[in-house]
């Protein structure tokens, strides 16, 4: 769901969801004024502002809001209120009275994995890449355990705190097209970004220098038959095993 993100961070930074992002530099008074203008902004947000903590505010432009977008917005707020996990972006508050629609979340200073890889031309070394995969799998396993289907999992919706060298944490974000699965398992037909849909749609070439067990895991996740794909709990087990082997190899190689 497109929207403007506004935070109290001290520099202009994209933080990795669909839409345009603006960060307010040294503009506490301006942010407070903005908060006052939004009638239903939660007490939680005011508490965060008064502590001068960084937050991200996703604002829907009134002139672009339609019925479908309002429904998507309501679904996103409903789901984000339900979840709390260290690998899922933390919901802080929301204003739900049109035309002042916004969602407030924690601010992820590292930006998105997509921006790191494509705009900053960054590169994860294998140990860090495995940490990223483990964090994402933990967040997704938690969501699936709670019958929440994200439906738009991609690098742009994975936000980072910290950096590769120290305390890197990755969290799943953007629940605009997520859905709660009914007991019957029935889901609506709407899905997420085309390029990031079901794995049988696109099968990119795995680089030849990829860790063999990681390549094998990718092939498992791309099985044509969904029943043959591992769930995120199984993926976590495999990733932990690969991490142990990689760590052991690095330790022995450094001796």
What is the strand and helix layout of this fold?
Blueprint: E1 4-7, E2 21-23, H1 28-37, H2 43-50, E3 55-59, H3 67-82, E4 91-95, E5 102-106, E6 111-112, H4 113-119, H5 126-145, E7 148-149, E8 158-163, E9 166-172, E10 179-180, H6 212-221, H7 232-254
Parallel strand pairs: 1-2
Antiparallel strand pairs: 1-3, 3-5, 4-5, 6-8, 7-10, 8-9
Helix pairs in contact: 5-7
Report helical residue fraction: 25-40%
CATH superfamily annotation of the largest domain: Transferase(Phosphotransferase) domain 1
How are strands sequenced across the largest beta sheet? Answer: 2-1-3-5-4
What amount of the residues lies in strands?
Answer: 15-25%
Shape by Cα distribution? globular
Number of helices: 7
Kindly state the mean pLDDT as a whole number? 75
Give an account of the 3D structure.
It is an enzyme of class 2 (transferase). Its EC number is 2.7.11.1. There is one protein chain. By secondary structure, this protein is an alpha+beta fold. The protein has 2 domains: 4-106, Phosphorylase Kinase, domain 1, CATH 3.30.200.20; 113-254, Orthogonal Bundle (Transferase(Phosphotransferase), domain 1), CATH 1.10.510.10. The protein is 37% helix and 16% strand. The protein is built from 7 helices and 10 strands. The protein has helices at 28-37, 43-50, 67-82, 113-119, 126-145, 212-221, 232-254, and strands at residues 4-7, 21-23, 55-59, 91-95, 102-106, 111-112, 148-149, 158-163, 166-172, 179-180. The strands form 3 sheets. Strands 2-1-3-5-4 form a 5-stranded mixed sheet, with helices on both faces. Strands 6-8-9 form a 3-stranded antiparallel sheet. Strand 8 and strand 9 (166-172) form a beta hairpin. The longest helix is centred in the C-terminal third of the chain and has 23 residues, at 232-254. The radius of gyration is 19 Å and the shape is globular.
């Amino acid at each position: 769901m497109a929207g403007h993100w506004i935070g109290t961070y001290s520099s202009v930074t994209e933080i990795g969801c669909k839409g345009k992002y603006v960060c307010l530099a040294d503009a506490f008074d301006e942010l407070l004024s903005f908060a006052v203008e939004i009638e239903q902004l939660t007490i939680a947000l005011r508490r965060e502002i008064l502590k001068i903590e960084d937050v991200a505010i996703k604002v829907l432009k009134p002139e672009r809001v339609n019925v479908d977008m309002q429904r998507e917005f309501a679904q996103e707020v409903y789901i984000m209120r339900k979840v709390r996990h260290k690998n899922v972006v933390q919901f802080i508050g929301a204003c739900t009275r049109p035309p002042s629609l916004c969602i407030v979340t924690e601010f992820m200073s590292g930006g998105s994995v997509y921006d790191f890889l494509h705009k900053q031309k960054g590169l994860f070394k294998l140990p860090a890449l495995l940490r990223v995969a483990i964090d994402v799998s933990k967040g997704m396993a938690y969501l699936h355990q709670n019958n929440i289907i994200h439906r738009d999992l991609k690098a742009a919706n994975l936000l980072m705190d910290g950096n590769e060298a120290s305390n890197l944490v990755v969290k799943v974000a953007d629940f605009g097209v997520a859905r709660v699965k009914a007991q019957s398992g029935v889901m609506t037909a709407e899905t997420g970004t085309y390029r990031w849909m079901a794995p049988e749609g696109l099968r990119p070439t795995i680089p030849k220098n990829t860790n063999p067990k990681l390549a094998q895991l990718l092939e498992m996740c791309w099985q044509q038959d969904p029943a043959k794909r591992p769930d995120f709990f199984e993926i976590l087990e495999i990733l932990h095993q690969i991490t142990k082997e990689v760590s052991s190899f690095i330790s022995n190689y450094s001796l």
